[in-house]
Design brief:
0% strand, 81 residues, mainly alpha, 3 helices
Length: 81
């Protein structure tokens, strides 16, 4: 018998993967703007990205991590299949 919690986690992970894959197609300026939006939602008032979110890879990891957190499954989903 499969645990209902495991089904929930799998659904969350799949949703987070979809978000991550969508943003992999976005431009650098789009990912930068989205990262700023996430930071504002979290209460950071800055209008500039912090040093650890300057590269596209860092931004994609941040977006994927936030998506997985938002869907209840905290892990790096970038590049997961």
């Amino acid at each position: 018998m499969t645990s209902p919690a495991m089904k929930f986690i799998r659904v969350n992970l799949e949703m987070a993967k979809e978000v991550a894959h969508k943003w992999e197609q976005a431009s650098y300026s789009q990912t930068s703007a989205y990262c700023l939006d996430i930071l504002k939602e979290l209460g950071f008032p800055s209008t500039e990205l912090p040093v650890n979110l300057q590269t596209r890879e860092e931004q994609l990891n941040f977006i994927a991590g936030f998506a997985s957190y938002a869907f209840g499954e905290v892990q790096n989903v970038q590049g997961a299949s």
